[in-house]
Amino acid sequence: MRSGSAEHEHAMVRAAELYYNDGLLQSDVADKLRVSRWKVGRLLEEARQSGLVEIKIHHPHSRRRDLEQRLTSRFDLPEAVVVESQPTNAATMDLVGQAAADYLLEMRPGPDIIGVSWGHTLAAIAECLPEGAFNRPTIVQLNGGASSLRDTVDAGSIIRMIAGKSRDPRTALLPASAIVQDRELAHRLRADRQVAGTLHLAGRADVAVYSIGVLSPQSVLVTTDCITADELVELSGAGAIGDILGHFIDRFGRVVDFELDQRTIGLGLEALARVPRSIAVAVGEEKSEMTRAVLYAGLCTVLVTESNIAQQILDDVPEGHE
């Protein structure tokens, strides 16, 4: 970690946050950041000398503790991680991806079974993980995939990236589409030994990381023909506002189309709610309503998001619910 590098600067920010904001001992900070206690002392000293730390932490990576506390209080949410929204969606995605990666790295004990979905948000998180991120993890796909994806945002690419940055990893892919054509096919697929085994393993995950999807013609589930244009219209008419792992829900977090849901291949919402740490990640203000629905339904124990989404959620909820 070369002095003056972006990695060094990020380490200064995290050390300062953990020590000054969270009140951890330097030995605890060292454990979380996987460095020596001496190194933590040097990072804190450099942070003070550089002006990074005064009364508060001056850096885009610094979290919005005020919004985090309001979210956890209002929605009875165990944990929230909120970063400052940036001028562009790409810049915000980078910060949210790093924040989610930091959360995973700082879990103690480290996760043995890590469940992941796919898409641009999960790819951003995987890219932010350092080499040697996890020790002997099993990385499992939470929901079926889609064909004709651009870039490397498919489940296989994301899982391989995380595995490549881990020591002695195991992987479990889900060889099925996110949504199939009919219920009979879905039933047969779930009975397949490999599919059933992967779904069973996903239900045993220590942590599940997924992104929040919105109902839109630009949704990857639409552009890859997992659902048709007619089904999109029907879902909208039924009150759907987006999906979690391919399960379409309304603003109260309820599944809206049971026939379609029976054709969905992936971890069910009830099973997701039983995962010890389920991390929902949201970037883009258009996801505010869906993020609020996820919080209402208790579908995550940790929310990682940006300040614009957090503020909009809090503004739209009556003060009496806080």
What would you say this structure looks like, in words?
It is a single chain. This protein has 15 helices and ten strands. The chain has 322 residues and is an alpha/beta fold. It has two domains: 6-50, Arc Repressor Mutant, subunit A (Orthogonal Bundle); 65-321, 3-Layer(aba) Sandwich (Rossmann fold), CATH 3.40.50. It has a seven-stranded parallel β-sheet with strand order 1-10-9-5-2-3-4, sandwiched between helices. Strands 6-7-8 form a three-stranded antiparallel β-sheet. Strand 3, helix 7 (155-164) and strand 4 (170-172) form a beta-alpha-beta unit. The longest helix has 17 residues, at 89-105. The protein starts with 5 loop residues before the first helix and ends in a 6-residue tail after the last helix. The mean pLDDT is 92.
Tell me the layout of helices and strands.
Elements: H1 6-21, H2 26-33, H3 37-50, H4 65-74, E1 79-83, H5 89-105, E2 113-116, H6 120-128, E3 138-141, H7 155-164, E4 170-172, H8 183-191, H9 193-203, E5 207-211, E6 213-214, H10 220-223, H11 229-237, E7 242-244, E8 247-249, H12 258-261, H13 269-274, E9 277-281, H14 288-297, E10 302-306, H15 307-316
Parallel strand pairs: 1-10, 2-3, 2-5, 3-4, 5-9, 9-10
Antiparallel strand pairs: 6-7, 7-8
GO molecular function: carbohydrate binding; DNA binding
Family: Belongs to the SorC transcriptional regulatory family.
Protein name: Sugar-binding domain-containing protein
